[in-house]
């Protein structure tokens, strides 16, 4: 379960970074 939790956290962080980059571009 820990592996899944870490993977989900990493995915969420990447999604947040992409969203931030898109917002900055706009």
TrEMBL record:
It comes from Treponema pallidum. This is 15kDa lipoprotein antigen. It comes from the Bacteria. The keyword Lipoprotein applies. Keywords: Lipoprotein.
